[in-house]
Design brief:
alpha+beta; Rossmann fold; Dna Ligase, domain 1; D-amino Acid Aminotransferase, Chain A, domain 1; 4 domains; nine-stranded antiparallel beta sheet; five-stranded parallel beta sheet; 23 strands; binds adenosine monophosphate; binds glycine
Length: about 425
């Protein structure tokens, strides 16, 4: 089978790595890819937000199956364009991608299907939002309705911070994404994510994970796209998981189908768990990054069979062949991230590292220059390992980190602390 993966981060490197191991994969193309992906697949220069361009490329290259990595092309309707052209695709329609692209839409779905989530109100007017904040008090959570590259959520610990956030959003800081604002009750508890494949009708759990959003050790400093992750997440034990599936995921999937916009792809279910009760924080309509890296490490080549079955709407009866294992990934980022950072610093020592079913360095923001790997983004490498217990996975991952020679980079040293 000829397979095209859209995206060029650590998530797509991990997807490509898993797909490539499956004997069904004949030819693998990733657009745009990165320096790590280029070592195992063909990379193509393609505007992945342009549905017509993606369809033309897929037709010219006899692509049998397209896997869409990030949310932006999904929200733009790239999966719709591919399906309309008769090309098998993994990833939701633009209508179903609203579960990530509009926070207000997700709240509406939760209301309609009774899924537990934070209490909320929606505003398109600044004065009304301010009055609501004064009435509710802090802590309180302010969210730009639309896609804001992970920056549109402010967890305000004081009223003043909440009022500033509202002023920024209605002041245009997030462009059109902030034209509507959702203000939510602050939920206490422990956060974890659940990943579920949905073929529109049936659902299949493909793993749990916990991310580390803050840049610094001990969960300090500003928020980032994620500084590391591990799977499974112990807080999502069988009981909590069953509740999340019964009370949140299945009702949501049924409600989307009922509306004529079935969800097909991977649903990333962000949960807050308190006293054994899960509530929805948010949905994303794609794999998490870096959560995908630990999921792929654990699933290996079967990940492709599951994703393929999902796209062909035959998840019913499919089972995951789970190993009793743990995976952990450490993000190495460019000095300065998530603020301003320099690009172009050279990374040495990658060639000498083991690459096997227990050790893998996935590339996020890297490029190749004169035969060397250079940093080309904020989050640059995802140093990933697997072990029989989490501590083993962690020790292996940090063992790899310590062999990488990159003076321009840094990482957190405490990934996995909550579970360890
Ligand atoms: P998001 O960008 O939607 O993933 O939100 C960023 C983070 O904000 C989440 O991962 C949570 O840590 C936090 N968050 C979002 N909504 C709430 C809420 N209602 N209560 C507490 N924390 C929240
Ligand atoms: N790691 C968080 C995300 O992918 O949204």
């Amino acid at each position: 089978m000829n397979i095209l993966i859209l995206g060029g981060g650590g998530r797509e490197h991990a997807l490509a790595w898993a797909v490539k191991q499956n004997p069904k994969c004949d030819r693998l193309i990733v657009a745009p890819g990165n320096a790590g992906i280029a070592m195992l697949a063909e990379c193509a220069d393609l505007d992945i937000l342009d549905g017509a361009a993606v369809v033309t490329f897929a037709e010219e290259n006899a692509v049998d199956f397209v896997i869409v990595g990030p949310e932006a092309p999904l929200a733009e309707g790239v999966a719709d364009a591919l399906r309309a052209a008769g090309i098998l695709t993994f990833g939701p329609s633009a209508a179903a991608a609203r579960l990530e692209a509009s926070k207000a839409f997700t709240k509406e779905i939760c209301d309609a299907c009774g899924a537990p989530t934070a209490g909320y109100a929606r505003f398109t007017d600044r004065a009304a939002a301010e009055a609501y904040i004064r009435q509710e008090g802090a802590p309180i959570v302010i969210k730009a309705d639309g896609l804001a590259a992970g920056k549109g959520v402010i967890v305000a610990m004081s009223e003043a911070e909440a009022l500033d956030a509202v002023a920024d959003m209605f002041g245009g800081e997030f462009g059109a994404a902030g034209a509507e604002v959702v203000i939510e009750e602050f939920m206490e508890g422990e956060e974890a994510s659940l990943f579920v494949l949905c073929d529109g009708k049936d659902v299949l759990e493909v793993g749990t994970a916990q991310d580390h959003k803050r840049v610094g050790d001990g969960d300090t400093g500003p928020n980032t796209g994620g500084m590391g992750a591990y799977s499974p997440a112990p807080v999502l034990n069988d009981t909590v998981l069953a509740r999340a599936m019964d009370e949140i995921v299945r009702p949501t999937v049924a409600e989307m189908a009922r509306r004529g916009t079935p969800f097909q792809g991977v649903l990333y279910v962000g949960l807050m768990i308190k006293d054994g009760r899960p509530r929805l924080v948010e949905y994303n309509v794609r794999f998490g990054d870096p959560e995908c890296q630990v999921l792929m490490m654990r699933l290996g080549a079967q990940a492709f069979d599951l994703i393929h079955a999902c796209a062909e709407e035959r998840l019913g009866g499919i089972e995951v062949n789970w190993a009793e294992d743990h995976a952990l990934t450490v993000v190495m980022a460019a000095e300065g991230y998530p603020g301003a950072y320099a690009k172009g610093s050279q990374i040495r020592g990658l060639g000498e590292l083991p690459e096997d079913s227990a050790h893998m360095v996935f590339h996020a923001g890297t490029a190749e220059r004169d035969g060397s790997v250079i940093a080309s983004g904020g989050r640059v490498l995802n140093v990933t390992a697997r072990g029989a217990i989490l501590a083993e996975a962690r020790d292996r991952a940090y063992g790899l980190v310590d062999q990488i020679d990159w003076p321009g980079g840094f990482c957190r040293r405490d990934i996995g602390w909550r579970a360890l």
